[in-house]
Amino acid sequence: MKTNPSQDPNTSPQPARWRRALRNFLIEVGIYATLVTAYFYLALHLLATPLKDLFQNHLPVYAVVSLILIVIQGVLLEHLTSFLLERLGLQRLE
Amino acid sequence: MEFPIAGVTVNPFFLAGIGFLVGVLGGFFGVGGGFIASPLLYLTGVPMHFVVGTDLAHMTGKSIVAARRHRSLGHVDIKLGAFMVVSTIVGVECGAQLVEVLKYHGHTDEVIGWAYVAILLAIGIFTGVESFKAMQTLHTERMPTREVVHLSNFSKRVHGLHLPPMVSFPDSGIGSISIWVVLLVGLLTGFLAGFLGVGGGFIRMPLLVYGLGVPTHVAIGTDLFEIVFSAGFGTITHAIKGNVDILMALVMHTGAAIGAQIGATSTRIFSGPRIRLLFSVLPILGAILMILRLVGAGRFIQF
Q1: Are B195 and B95 in contact, with CB atoms under 8 Å apart?
Q2: Rounded to an integer, what distance in angstroms lies between the CA atom of residue B238 and that of residue B256?
Q3: 3-state secondary structure labels for all residues of B211-259
Q4: Distance CA B184, CA B190 (A)
Q5: Which residues contact A48 (CB under 8 A, 6 or more apart)?
Q6: Disulfide-capable partner of B33 in A93, B22, B90, B196 (CB 3.0 to 4.6 Å)?
C-alpha cells in the first residue's frame, strides 16, 4: 500500500511506520558501524602499546586506567547512541 | 586484530557482535549476560581468567549505557539501588567465603554447579508460570495498565513488616518498607552471586519484583544501576590480578553500547508480565548450559 509522503507519521498505517522505523534503524547502525570501525583501527592501535606496558609493569595503575577507560567510553557511547536513536528509529515505535 | 595483553588474535567484529548480543539482553532484561558472553569468548581462544575479568569490564561500560537510558525513561530508583549496593557487596564476599569453605571440603564444582542449576530452574519456572498467569489476568480483565504481578500479596506482606527504621522509595511506588528487608534482599542476591560466581542480574530482578514489589521496568533499570558498581568493583579486583584485557573489553563494549540502547528502549513496547515471561527463558538457558557442563556433554562451556 502506498502512503502519502506528507502524511503525519503518527497517523500513517502501522506497516508504513514499521518500514520507516526499520529503514531509520539500519541507517543508524550503518553510521554507528562506520564510526566504530574507524575507532578500532585508530584509537585502539594507539592505546595498545602503552596499555601493554602498564599491564606488564604497573598492574595497579593498569587496573585504575582500565576502569577509567571503560567508564569514559561508556559515557561517550551513551551520548553517541542516544543521539543516533533520538534522531531516528526505535524511539518512534510506541 | 591482535590483542597483545591477552596474547590472542580475535576478529574485532566478532567481539563487537558478542557485545551487541549481550547488550540487547542486558538492556532489555537488566542482566549482565555473562552466561552467554563467557562461553563465546572462551570459544575464540581467550584464556579463561581473561574471559571472566574482561567480561566484567565490558559489563561495566554496557551497564552505564543501559542504566542511563533506563534513567531517562524513569526506570531507575537510585535510592533503592544505593541501599542495595552496600549489602550486595557484603553478600558477594559472604558467598565467596562459602566457596572457600567448600573448596576445603572438596567437591566444590559439583555442589556449586547443582545449586546453580536448582536455583536457576526455580527462578525460571516460577517467573514463567507467574508472568503467564499475570498476562492472562491482563488479557481477560482488560486492565488499563502495563504492570500486574500475579503474586502481589507476598510483596504486600513484606511491606507490612514493621521493623524500624522504615524507608520509602517513591520511584518504585513503595510508600514504606523496613530498611532491613531491602538490605536482606541485597545481601541474598549478593550472596548467591558470590556463591554461584555470576553477576546476579537474573536473581536480583525477580527478587525486586516479587519480594519488594518493584515494577518490572524499574527493577530492570535499578538492577543495571547496581551492576555498574558491582561490575566496576569486579573490574578493578580482576585487573589487579592481571585478568582483564581492557582493549578487548573496549571493542566488545562498542557493540554492547548500541545493543544496550536498543534493549533498554525496547522495554517501552512490552508490558511488565511479557518482559518477565521472556526473561524466564534466560535462567532456564543458563541452567541447561550448566547441566551440559556438569554431565561432560559440553566441555567447551565455561562460566
Answers
A1: yes
A2: 20
A3: HCCCCHHHHHHHHHHHHHHHHHHHHHHHHHCCCCCHHHHHHHHHHHHHH
A4: 10
A5: B4, B247
A6: B22
Contact between A84 and B37 (Cβ < 8 Å): no
Report chain A's C-alpha Rg in angstroms: 20
pLDDT tens readout for residues A52-78: 999 999 999 999 999 999 999 999 988
Residue A93 scores a pLDDT above 70: no
Q: From CA B225, how far away is CA A18, in angstroms rounded?
A: 31
What tens digit of pLDDT does each residue of B244-298 get?
899 999 999 998 888 888 888 887 777 777 888 888 888 888 788 778 777 765 4
Give mean pLDDT, residues B71-95.
85
Q: Which of B68, B266, B269 sits opposite A78 (nearest CB)?
A: B68
Contacts for B46 with CB less than 8 Å, ≥ 6 apart: B6, B8, B10, B54, B245, B248
Residue B184, classified by CB atoms within 10 Å of its CB into exposed (0-12), middle (13-18) or buried (19+), is: middle
Tell me phi and psi for residue B175, to 5 degrees: -75, -45
Beta carbons within 8 Å of B67's beta carbon, 6+ residues apart: B76, B221, B224, B225, B227, B228
The answer, for A29 touching chain B at a CB cutoff of 8 Å, is: yes
Instruction: Tell me the per-residue pLDDT of B107-135, one tens digit each, with 9 for 90 and over.
Output: 666 777 788 788 888 888 888 888 887 77
Distance, CA of A54 to CA of B226 (rounded, Å): 29
The closest alpha carbon to B92, from B118, B49, B46, B56, belongs to B56
Q: Taking each helix axis from N to C terminus, what angle separates B281-294 and B272-279, rounded to the nearest 10 degrees?
A: 10
Place of cell 576445603: B104
pTM value > 0.95: no
CA-to-CA distance for B296 and B66, rounded, in angstroms?
A: 35
* CB contacts, 8 Å: B251 with chain A: 40, 44
B215 vs A: CB within 8 A: no
Cβ atoms within 10 A of the Cβ of B301, count? 18
The identity of residue B258, as a single letter, is I
- Tell me if B5 and A70 make a contact (CB, 8 A cut-off): no
Query: What is the residue-wise DSSP string for A41-75?
Result: HHHHHHHHHHHHHHHHH-HHHHHHHHHHHHHHHHH
What torsion, rounded to 10 degrees, do the Cα atoms B207, B210, B214, B217 define? 80
| Cβ contact B246–A82 (<8 Å) | no
